UniProtKB/TrEMBL annotation:
<dbReference type="Pfam" id="PF13560">
    <property type="entry name" value="HTH_31"/>
</dbReference>
<dbReference type="InterPro" id="IPR010982">
    <property type="entry name" value="Lambda_DNA-bd_dom_sf"/>
</dbReference>
<dbReference type="InterPro" id="IPR041413">
    <property type="entry name" value="MLTR_LBD"/>
</dbReference>
<feature type="domain" description="HTH cro/C1-type">
    <location>
        <begin position="9"/>
        <end position="81"/>
    </location>
</feature>
<dbReference type="InterPro" id="IPR001387">
    <property type="entry name" value="Cro/C1-type_HTH"/>
</dbReference>
<dbReference type="Pfam" id="PF17765">
    <property type="entry name" value="MLTR_LBD"/>
</dbReference>
<protein>
    <submittedName>
        <fullName>Helix-turn-helix transcriptional regulator</fullName>
    </submittedName>
</protein>
Length: 275
Protein backbone atom coordinates (compact mmCIF):
# COMPACT_ATOMS: atom_id res chain seq x y z
CA UNK A 1 0.00 0.00 0.00
CA UNK A 2 1.36 3.41 -1.01
CA UNK A 3 -0.04 5.56 1.83
CA UNK A 4 1.68 8.78 0.72
CA UNK A 5 0.51 8.51 -2.89
CA UNK A 6 -3.01 7.56 -1.83
CA UNK A 7 -3.16 10.51 0.56
CA UNK A 8 -1.94 12.95 -2.10
CA UNK A 9 -4.42 11.64 -4.65
CA UNK A 10 -7.38 11.90 -2.28
CA UNK A 11 -6.44 15.45 -1.27
CA UNK A 12 -6.03 16.48 -4.90
CA UNK A 13 -9.43 15.16 -5.95
CA UNK A 14 -11.18 16.58 -2.89
CA UNK A 15 -9.74 20.05 -3.50
CA UNK A 16 -10.89 19.99 -7.13
CA UNK A 17 -14.52 19.34 -6.26
CA UNK A 18 -16.91 22.21 -5.68
CA UNK A 19 -19.74 21.89 -3.14
CA UNK A 20 -22.21 22.72 -5.90
CA UNK A 21 -21.04 19.64 -7.83
CA UNK A 22 -22.58 17.51 -5.07
CA UNK A 23 -25.56 19.66 -4.23
CA UNK A 24 -23.93 21.02 -1.06
CA UNK A 25 -24.22 24.65 0.09
CA UNK A 26 -21.09 26.68 -0.64
CA UNK A 27 -21.15 28.51 2.69
CA UNK A 28 -19.26 31.74 3.41
CA UNK A 29 -16.20 30.65 5.40
CA UNK A 30 -14.31 28.34 3.04
CA UNK A 31 -10.64 29.27 3.34
CA UNK A 32 -9.48 26.71 0.79
CA UNK A 33 -10.97 25.44 -2.49
CA UNK A 34 -12.84 22.21 -2.75
CA UNK A 35 -14.79 20.13 -0.28
CA UNK A 36 -14.06 19.91 3.42
CA UNK A 37 -12.83 16.61 4.80
CA UNK A 38 -15.91 16.25 6.96
CA UNK A 39 -18.10 16.62 3.86
CA UNK A 40 -16.29 13.80 2.08
CA UNK A 41 -16.48 11.65 5.24
CA UNK A 42 -20.21 12.27 5.47
CA UNK A 43 -20.80 11.40 1.83
CA UNK A 44 -18.71 8.23 2.20
CA UNK A 45 -20.39 7.26 5.51
CA UNK A 46 -17.06 6.97 7.36
CA UNK A 47 -15.92 8.85 10.45
CA UNK A 48 -14.20 12.19 9.96
CA UNK A 49 -11.20 10.94 11.96
CA UNK A 50 -10.85 7.90 9.70
CA UNK A 51 -10.91 9.99 6.52
CA UNK A 52 -8.51 12.58 7.95
CA UNK A 53 -6.02 9.81 8.74
CA UNK A 54 -6.30 8.53 5.16
CA UNK A 55 -5.40 11.98 3.82
CA UNK A 56 -2.55 12.27 6.30
CA UNK A 57 -1.07 8.91 5.21
CA UNK A 58 -1.44 7.40 8.67
CA UNK A 59 -4.65 5.46 8.31
CA UNK A 60 -5.22 1.70 8.35
CA UNK A 61 -5.43 -0.39 5.21
CA UNK A 62 -8.84 0.61 3.80
CA UNK A 63 -11.25 -2.11 2.78
CA UNK A 64 -12.77 -2.39 -0.69
CA UNK A 65 -16.07 -1.13 0.75
CA UNK A 66 -14.45 2.01 2.15
CA UNK A 67 -12.55 2.67 -1.06
CA UNK A 68 -15.76 2.29 -3.05
CA UNK A 69 -17.54 4.73 -0.75
CA UNK A 70 -14.73 7.30 -0.91
CA UNK A 71 -14.52 6.96 -4.71
CA UNK A 72 -18.24 7.63 -4.93
CA UNK A 73 -18.04 10.61 -2.59
CA UNK A 74 -15.25 12.15 -4.68
CA UNK A 75 -17.07 11.42 -7.94
CA UNK A 76 -14.09 9.51 -9.31
CA UNK A 77 -14.19 8.21 -12.86
CA UNK A 78 -13.78 4.44 -13.39
CA UNK A 79 -10.10 4.98 -14.24
CA UNK A 80 -9.55 7.09 -11.10
CA UNK A 81 -11.39 4.54 -8.99
CA UNK A 82 -9.16 1.75 -10.29
CA UNK A 83 -6.11 3.93 -9.53
CA UNK A 84 -7.23 4.38 -5.91
CA UNK A 85 -7.56 0.63 -5.50
CA UNK A 86 -4.07 0.10 -6.95
CA UNK A 87 -2.56 2.66 -4.56
CA UNK A 88 -4.28 0.93 -1.64
CA UNK A 89 -3.07 -2.48 -2.79
CA UNK A 90 -6.63 -3.81 -2.87
CA UNK A 91 -8.37 -5.75 -5.61
CA UNK A 92 -11.16 -3.55 -6.94
CA UNK A 93 -14.68 -4.82 -6.58
CA UNK A 94 -16.77 -4.45 -9.72
CA UNK A 95 -18.66 -1.14 -9.86
CA UNK A 96 -22.18 -1.39 -8.51
CA UNK A 97 -23.64 0.05 -11.69
CA UNK A 98 -22.92 2.12 -14.78
CA UNK A 99 -22.50 5.89 -14.70
CA UNK A 100 -25.93 7.44 -15.29
CA UNK A 101 -25.02 11.12 -15.47
CA UNK A 102 -23.49 13.06 -18.35
CA UNK A 103 -20.32 15.13 -18.14
CA UNK A 104 -20.64 18.84 -19.06
CA UNK A 105 -18.30 18.60 -22.06
CA UNK A 106 -20.40 15.73 -23.42
CA UNK A 107 -23.65 17.58 -22.72
CA UNK A 108 -22.24 20.58 -24.60
CA UNK A 109 -22.20 18.55 -27.80
CA UNK A 110 -25.99 18.40 -27.71
CA UNK A 111 -26.30 22.16 -28.13
CA UNK A 112 -23.31 22.74 -30.40
CA UNK A 113 -24.57 20.39 -33.12
CA UNK A 114 -28.08 21.69 -33.94
CA UNK A 115 -28.28 19.93 -37.32
CA UNK A 116 -27.18 16.59 -35.86
CA UNK A 117 -29.33 14.30 -33.77
CA UNK A 118 -27.34 13.43 -30.64
CA UNK A 119 -28.22 10.70 -28.13
CA UNK A 120 -26.11 9.75 -25.08
CA UNK A 121 -26.62 6.27 -23.62
CA UNK A 122 -25.11 4.45 -20.65
CA UNK A 123 -23.77 0.89 -20.72
CA UNK A 124 -27.33 -0.51 -20.62
CA UNK A 125 -28.60 1.56 -23.59
CA UNK A 126 -30.59 3.78 -21.23
CA UNK A 127 -30.93 7.22 -22.83
CA UNK A 128 -29.30 9.77 -20.52
CA UNK A 129 -29.54 12.83 -22.75
CA UNK A 130 -30.64 13.79 -26.25
CA UNK A 131 -31.03 17.00 -28.18
CA UNK A 132 -34.26 18.37 -29.70
CA UNK A 133 -33.47 17.07 -33.19
CA UNK A 134 -33.02 13.51 -31.86
CA UNK A 135 -36.40 13.79 -30.14
CA UNK A 136 -38.09 15.04 -33.31
CA UNK A 137 -36.41 12.43 -35.50
CA UNK A 138 -36.65 9.37 -33.27
CA UNK A 139 -39.93 10.11 -31.52
CA UNK A 140 -41.07 9.75 -27.93
CA UNK A 141 -38.74 7.63 -25.81
CA UNK A 142 -41.39 7.05 -23.15
CA UNK A 143 -41.05 7.10 -19.35
CA UNK A 144 -38.22 4.53 -19.37
CA UNK A 145 -36.04 5.60 -22.30
CA UNK A 146 -33.93 2.62 -23.29
CA UNK A 147 -32.95 1.79 -26.87
CA UNK A 148 -32.85 -1.97 -26.29
CA UNK A 149 -36.30 -1.94 -24.71
CA UNK A 150 -37.56 0.24 -27.56
CA UNK A 151 -36.19 -2.18 -30.16
CA UNK A 152 -37.17 -5.53 -28.64
CA UNK A 153 -40.43 -4.64 -26.89
CA UNK A 154 -41.89 -1.64 -28.69
CA UNK A 155 -41.10 -2.64 -32.26
CA UNK A 156 -39.56 0.70 -33.22
CA UNK A 157 -36.95 -0.32 -35.77
CA UNK A 158 -35.16 1.22 -38.71
CA UNK A 159 -36.06 -0.01 -42.15
CA UNK A 160 -33.32 -1.63 -44.23
CA UNK A 161 -30.42 -1.09 -41.80
CA UNK A 162 -27.05 -1.51 -43.49
CA UNK A 163 -24.51 -3.50 -41.51
CA UNK A 164 -27.17 -5.69 -39.93
CA UNK A 165 -30.07 -5.08 -37.51
CA UNK A 166 -29.68 -3.40 -34.16
CA UNK A 167 -30.60 -6.49 -32.14
CA UNK A 168 -27.18 -8.22 -32.05
CA UNK A 169 -25.49 -4.88 -31.33
CA UNK A 170 -27.78 -4.26 -28.35
CA UNK A 171 -27.35 -7.77 -26.96
CA UNK A 172 -23.55 -7.57 -27.28
CA UNK A 173 -23.48 -4.37 -25.26
CA UNK A 174 -25.94 -5.64 -22.66
CA UNK A 175 -23.92 -8.85 -22.21
CA UNK A 176 -20.79 -6.78 -21.62
CA UNK A 177 -22.69 -4.58 -19.14
CA UNK A 178 -23.96 -7.63 -17.27
CA UNK A 179 -20.37 -8.84 -16.89
CA UNK A 180 -19.11 -5.47 -15.65
CA UNK A 181 -22.04 -4.60 -13.36
CA UNK A 182 -23.37 -7.86 -11.89
CA UNK A 183 -24.81 -6.01 -8.88
CA UNK A 184 -26.77 -3.36 -10.81
CA UNK A 185 -30.45 -3.83 -10.03
CA UNK A 186 -31.89 -1.71 -12.90
CA UNK A 187 -29.85 -3.77 -15.37
CA UNK A 188 -31.09 -7.01 -13.80
CA UNK A 189 -34.69 -5.85 -14.15
CA UNK A 190 -34.15 -4.83 -17.77
CA UNK A 191 -32.60 -8.18 -18.72
CA UNK A 192 -35.33 -10.12 -16.93
CA UNK A 193 -38.01 -8.15 -18.77
CA UNK A 194 -36.35 -8.66 -22.14
CA UNK A 195 -35.89 -12.39 -21.54
CA UNK A 196 -39.50 -12.80 -20.49
CA UNK A 197 -41.10 -10.80 -23.30
CA UNK A 198 -38.85 -11.12 -26.36
CA UNK A 199 -38.08 -14.41 -28.08
CA UNK A 200 -35.67 -12.60 -30.41
CA UNK A 201 -33.72 -11.32 -27.40
CA UNK A 202 -33.53 -14.79 -25.86
CA UNK A 203 -32.25 -16.31 -29.10
CA UNK A 204 -29.64 -13.58 -29.61
CA UNK A 205 -28.47 -13.83 -25.99
CA UNK A 206 -27.62 -17.49 -26.55
CA UNK A 207 -25.40 -16.63 -29.54
CA UNK A 208 -23.02 -14.38 -27.52
CA UNK A 209 -22.74 -11.66 -30.21
CA UNK A 210 -19.73 -9.33 -30.21
CA UNK A 211 -19.81 -5.81 -31.64
CA UNK A 212 -17.70 -2.65 -31.49
CA UNK A 213 -19.25 0.82 -31.93
CA UNK A 214 -18.79 2.40 -35.32
CA UNK A 215 -20.67 3.57 -38.42
CA UNK A 216 -24.05 2.37 -39.65
CA UNK A 217 -26.60 3.58 -42.19
CA UNK A 218 -30.32 3.14 -41.79
CA UNK A 219 -33.65 4.35 -43.12
CA UNK A 220 -36.05 5.74 -40.53
CA UNK A 221 -39.81 5.85 -41.09
CA UNK A 222 -40.83 9.30 -39.81
CA UNK A 223 -44.58 10.00 -39.34
CA UNK A 224 -44.38 13.45 -41.01
CA UNK A 225 -41.36 13.24 -43.29
CA UNK A 226 -41.66 9.69 -44.53
CA UNK A 227 -38.48 7.72 -45.05
CA UNK A 228 -35.32 9.50 -43.92
CA UNK A 229 -31.96 7.94 -44.77
CA UNK A 230 -29.41 8.70 -42.06
CA UNK A 231 -25.89 7.90 -40.92
CA UNK A 232 -25.37 6.80 -37.33
CA UNK A 233 -21.85 7.21 -35.95
CA UNK A 234 -21.05 6.19 -32.40
CA UNK A 235 -18.37 7.73 -30.21
CA UNK A 236 -17.37 5.88 -27.03
CA UNK A 237 -16.82 7.74 -23.73
CA UNK A 238 -14.65 5.09 -22.03
CA UNK A 239 -14.17 6.86 -18.70
CA UNK A 240 -17.93 6.61 -18.07
CA UNK A 241 -18.69 3.53 -20.17
CA UNK A 242 -21.09 5.58 -22.28
CA UNK A 243 -21.71 6.09 -25.98
CA UNK A 244 -22.73 9.13 -28.02
CA UNK A 245 -24.66 8.46 -31.22
CA UNK A 246 -24.57 11.15 -33.92
CA UNK A 247 -27.38 10.97 -36.47
CA UNK A 248 -26.77 12.88 -39.72
CA UNK A 249 -27.78 12.83 -43.39
CA UNK A 250 -25.58 13.09 -46.48
CA UNK A 251 -25.32 16.75 -47.62
CA UNK A 252 -27.54 17.77 -50.51
CA UNK A 253 -29.92 14.84 -50.17
CA UNK A 254 -33.68 14.93 -49.52
CA UNK A 255 -32.95 13.46 -46.09
CA UNK A 256 -30.62 16.37 -45.28
CA UNK A 257 -33.37 18.79 -46.24
CA UNK A 258 -35.78 16.85 -44.05
CA UNK A 259 -33.43 17.16 -41.07
CA UNK A 260 -33.11 20.92 -41.63
CA UNK A 261 -36.90 21.13 -41.65
CA UNK A 262 -37.00 19.35 -38.31
CA UNK A 263 -34.33 21.66 -36.89
CA UNK A 264 -36.53 24.66 -37.63
CA UNK A 265 -39.54 23.02 -36.04
CA UNK A 266 -38.05 22.03 -32.68
CA UNK A 267 -37.38 24.08 -29.57
CA UNK A 268 -34.36 23.50 -27.29
CA UNK A 269 -34.84 21.59 -24.06
CA UNK A 270 -32.77 19.79 -21.50
CA UNK A 271 -32.57 16.10 -22.34
CA UNK A 272 -30.88 14.51 -19.30
CA UNK A 273 -29.03 14.83 -16.02
CA UNK A 274 -25.76 16.69 -16.47
CA UNK A 275 -22.61 16.82 -14.40
Amino acid sequence: MSRQELARFLRDRREKLRPADLGLPAGTRRRTPGLRREEVAGLAAVSVDYYVRLEQARGPHPSARVLDAVAGALRLSPAERAHVFRLAGTDPAPPIGPVRTVRPHVAGLLTRLPETGVVVTDATYTVLARNPLADALLGDFGPHPNLARRYFLQGQRAERPEGGPFGPIAVARLRAAADRYPRDEPLRRLLADLRERSEEFRELWRTHPVHAPGHRRKTLAHPDLGRVRVNCDVLAVPEDDQQIAFVTADPGTPSARALRHLVRSVRPHHGGDLR
